[in-house]
Amino acid sequence: MKRRDFIRLTAAGAAAALPLGSAYAQKAEFRYKYANNLPVSHPMNIRAKEMADAIRAETKGRVDIEVFPNNQLGSDTDMLSQLRSGAIEFFTLSGLILSTLVPATSITGIGFAFPDYATVWKALDGDLGAYVRAQIAKAGIVPMDKIWDNGFRQITSSTKPIDTAADLKDFKIRVPVSPLWTSMFKALGAAPASINFAEVYSALQTHIVDGQENPLAIIATAKLYEVQKYCSITNHMWDGFWFLANGAAWNRLPADLRTIVAKHVNAAGEAERADVEKLNASLQQELTGKGLVFNQAKTATFRDKLQKAGFYADWKGKYGNEAWDLLEKYSGKLA
Ligand code: X2X
Q1: C-alpha–C-alpha distance, residues 333 and 335, integer Å
Q2: Is the CB of 214 under 6 A from ligand 1?
Q3: Are 163 and 298 in contact (CB under 8 A)?
Q4: Helices (H) then strands (E): counts for the chain
């Protein structure tokens, strides 16, 4: 057999042996990575997989997004650096953690700002969200229009139920790495420790901290109930994930592909919002079955404590009047 023929034959053989899915990946012009910090079973990752499939299909394989869930590529702090350097092209991150780079983005997490989901989406899909996205864009990161839901947060503990703000006194609680989170729990009298989500399960298991706070969808999918005993319904803040793109990687995509990608990312985000809202409303029963003991906290005592500690006045000063007015347009008067 001539060498030329041999090469032709083996090349054909290799192509035929490719599994269907990766046929696209082989010829993709844009192979991008999307990374996040949540377990595969969380709606974020279920919708992200559908999203990547839809993008591959509609771009006829030109854009191939690989999803890396569950801190596979590192902690939020690591992934934010990777997004900025272009080592990953897409990343979902809480606005509160993103505030370590773009200070204005934490404003949507101010304690007790939003009474319900209807108000959250009005604000985030309205001019408060537009304001925050404009600040993110100035840092060379491109946020998609629709923020994904994390949810209203609840406090869990291995030692005692949290009923009033007084129960938080000196309470060792893990908070994400974010000045607003630390400030809020200090104002509530607690002893907060900044820890990336990647380390939360083990920090609870080894009693480095006694508690943490997260929405029920995360307490369930990350199995935090295995290492916590009590869950206090506080709804002390809402949190969401901006779907972020590295600016250079985004601009490399031709305009028609950018349109297709943005459409599917935003649609997946809206589907994820509905999934998470439903889960957060229904999980209490399931988690009770797994041994978590629930109580409804007296949230007026929390608001009062924040107000008296000067929390709202301090943060109004930091964000400035333009941003604070946009927040109060939806939250009502806070400070
Ligand atoms: O770190 C957390 O607690 C989490 C998963 O809720 C966020 O990404 C903010």
Answers
A1: 6
A2: yes
A3: yes
A4: 15, 12
192-229: pLDDT as tens digits: 999 999 999 999 999 999 999 999 999 999 999 999 99
What tens digit of pLDDT does each residue of 97-153 get?
999 999 999 999 999 999 999 999 999 999 999 999 999 999 999 999 999 999 999
Q: What is the DSSP letter of 209?
A: S
Nearest CA to ligand 1 atom 1: 197
Distance in angstroms (rounded) separating the CA atoms of residues 55 and 232: 40
Tokens 């773009």 belong to: 102
The pLDDT score that the predictor gives to residue 181 is 98
CA of 93 to the centre of ligand 1 (A): 8
User: Which amino acid residue places its CA nearest to atom 7 of ligand 1?
Assistant: 94
Q: How confident is the model at residue 166 (pLDDT cuts 50, 70, 90)?
A: very high
Express each pLDDT in 44-55 by its tens digit.
999 999 999 999
The closest alpha carbon to 51, from 144, 150, 118, 140, belongs to: 144
pLDDT higher than threshold 70 for residue 19 = no
Contact assessment for residue 227 and residue 217, using Cβ atoms and an 8 Å cutoff: no
- Domains of the chain and any CATH numbers: 3-102+112-149+241-280 (3.40.190.170), 154-236+288-331 (3.40.190.170)
State whether residue 20 is helix, strand or coil: helix
Nearest one of 333, 35, 302 to 167, comparing CA atoms: 302
Smallest CA-to-CA distance from 280 within 171, 150, 156 is with 150
Question: How many CB atoms sit inside 10 A of residue 296's CB?
Answer: 11
Give the tokens for residue 246. 């590295």
User: Band of the pLDDT at 12, cuts 50, 70, 90?
Assistant: very low
Across 140-168, b (16+ Cβ under 10 Å) vs e yields: ebbbbebbbbbbbbbbbbbeebbbbbebb
| 227 touches 205 (CB < 8 A) | yes
What's the rounded Cα separation, in Å, for the pair 185 and 308? 13
> 198: Cβ below 6 Å to ligand 1?
no
Q: Among 260, 300, 324, 289, which residue's Cα sits nearest to residue 107?
A: 324
